[in-house]
Each structure stands twice: as C-alpha cells, then as structure tokens.
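Weekly modeling sync, notes
Attendees: S.R. (lead), two postdocs, one rotation student

Agenda item 3: backlog of single-chain predictions. S.R. asked that every request posted to the team notebook include the full sequence so nobody has to chase files. The rotation student volunteered to paste the first one in as an example of the format we agreed on. Action items at the bottom.

Example entry:
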Amino acid sequence: MKRTIILLLVAVLSVATMSAQKIKKAVYVIDGHQVENFDGSQLNGKTIVKYSIEPVRNIHVIVTSDYKTKGRTISDVKTVTTVTKVDGNSVTVNTTQSTSVDKKEDVLCVINGKIVPYSEMKKTPSSKIDSVTIIKDKGTATYVKYAKEAGREPKCIIKVVTK
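Predicted structure, as returned to the notebook:
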C-alpha cells in the first residue's frame, strides 16, 4: 500500500515537473508594439537601447533608439509590461515605456549652420571659435529654423561660428 502511494506521488510529481518545464512561445514587443513572427529583421538598421525579458511569460521587450526620442540620446528607459489576455498559445501584451533623454540633449548645438551632437561641439577647440550665440527666444527666426530642422524644441540653441 505504501509502495503504491509512493509510486503515485512520484508519478504526479513527474507530470507536474514536466508541465512546469514546458517552454512558452516567446512574445516580442519592439518600441511598444507587439511583433508577430519575430525573426530579427524587424531590428535591421536600428540600435537596441534596452532589451529585457520577463521570464515567467517569456516576453521580450526591446527598445530601440527610434522610440520617441527624435534622434536624441537616451539615458534611461522604464518599461511596464502587463498581460491582458492569455488564450491557449496566444498572449496579448500591453507595454508602457517612458524614456529619459540626456539633459545635454535639451540644448541644440549648431556649428557653422550645421546641427551637430553636443559631443562634437565639445571637441571644437576654443582657439578655432570666432563667436558663440545662445538663442533662448523661441519666437526668433533662427530658433524656429533650427528647431524645425531638428524636429524638436530645445530649451536653447548654442550657435557657434568658427574662424
């Protein structure tokens, strides 16, 4: 009798363990959108900024540099993933992502009429600088021109003219 009970317990535990080890189909979310049939081609030409995996449900959340940044440098990404519907093998995933951009990116840098990254402006030797203009007034034609070209409204524009 004891032997039969022990065998039944071992059998039940074996079945439970095998069920628990069943690998769930991966769900991919790129820049807040669930991707069907992910094969990697969806990331061609993109830079991955953050990649996280929610292991219990096998949800892969990928944030690229294209995500709501308009080309600015991302300093932090926070992702909240909620599963709203699990139906057999189908999973519906909602993600909320917020990005923080580098504070340096609140400034638009222009050297000799060309918009450049902050890092490039930092490399410009002071001996080669003829003039520096700080533009804060969002109503000026210069501000409007460069903000439109950059596709964003910076706090200010640093316009440098070199010798």
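Discussion: group reviewed the output briefly. The radius of gyration is 26 Å.
Action items: rotation student to repeat for the remaining queue; S.R. to check formatting next week.
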